[in-house]
Protein: Oxidoreductase
Organism: Halalkalibacter okhensis
Amino acid sequence: MLNGERKIVRPLRWAMVGGGRLSQVGYKHRTGALRDNTAFQLVAGAFDIDPERGKDFGVNIGVEESRCYSDYKTMFNEEKKREDGIEVVSIATPNGTHHEICKAALEAGLHVVCEKPLFFTTEEVIEIKQLAEEKEKIVGVTYGFSGNQMLLQMRAMIEKGDIGDIRMVELQYTHGFSATDEADKYSAAQKWRVDPKIAGPSFVLGDLSTHTYYMSQLIMPDLKISKLLCDRQSFIESRAPLEDNAYVLMHFENGAVGRMWTSSVNAGCMDGHRIRIVGSKASLEWWDSKPGELSYEIQGKPAQTLIRAMPYLDESCNADERLGALHVEGLSDSWANIYLKFAIAIDAKDRGDQETLDNLVYPDINAGLEGVRWIENCVRSADQGSVWVDFEYEQKTHLL
Ligand code: NAI
């Protein structure tokens, strides 16, 4: 169980690029990183594309005015001159800026936490992975839902064989907020999401399904896709070639099959993030809307609901418990769990503690790489006319 006591010797000096006043995701980063004030301390930022608004915002959340910078390049240069300069930076800007900011941060000697989808291409991730290795730095990726401890419970039960052999993998991350094109016109956050120059080669495949895909890999680390078929649509035509809906069929190397449904036009849907794993003996199902519950259905027996924080859960699951039974946890706790692991990874890297790094389960740069690889394979299938394609892993050979 976590209670905020320090896991590393002192909090890391942390900054943000983006994540300012009008950003959707900035507060989630801060709520995660600053939950345990023993892990990170927010000391600087280039919070906004608009320097004045960024400075005003930074001061309002308690950052010293002189350390609220007009842009990330100035921040990296100025902070390098200080003895108490920043050690790690989080990048919470639109997709198309991640690669250049990440590269500049590593070159400035910083550890990095970056938003998903990490970059546009696997080549870019490989380049940054090599740079991070050279600089001996961590790159973490904020798959924000993946810190929910019930996912570790699923991982432990599947590993123990509680559901038998995996047969079907049902993944879904959908919502209905883009069912019309209204927000495409007035919302800055929606405008860039449907612009390939800023969003990259996909809309919902990158924006939504990379989360769920990573969570499936977290739960079933040995399951590998052998081929997939992706059918993607732009129901709002102006979004083409970027999809606002996609179905992906998957075949796995062990004979299992699966599907992912990802959509921003699932009209009326407020609760569309689900993972169901069907085995030869039983099934497990988790819904984001009830993050503290896990449905365990054994064939021929009454269905069970496993509840967070109970002693019957696996040790790995309860190790990430924060509030204890009877008290509701949610997305903020998930982010806090991920950020705590980023802090532990950074501290271990700085100390050269490879054993800690090898045993830590968290979304690192390989998780970012797999997300980008997933998008590339889906887009390749869709753009060839929604045909089955072999899932290309070949880049992995010179990586791992
Ligand atoms: P947004 O459009 O709401 O906010 C972007 C922010 O970045 C704004 O504050 C803007 O002023 C700032 N910005 C843009 N360029 C900048 C630059 N060069 N320097 C400094 N600040 C800059 O975007 P949103 O929705 O917050 O998404 C940002 C990133 O976070 C995207 O990559 C998105 O995919 C990801 N995201 C992840 C979520 C998660 O659960 N992990 C949830 C929502 C978004």
Notes: The two ends are 32 Å apart (CA to CA).
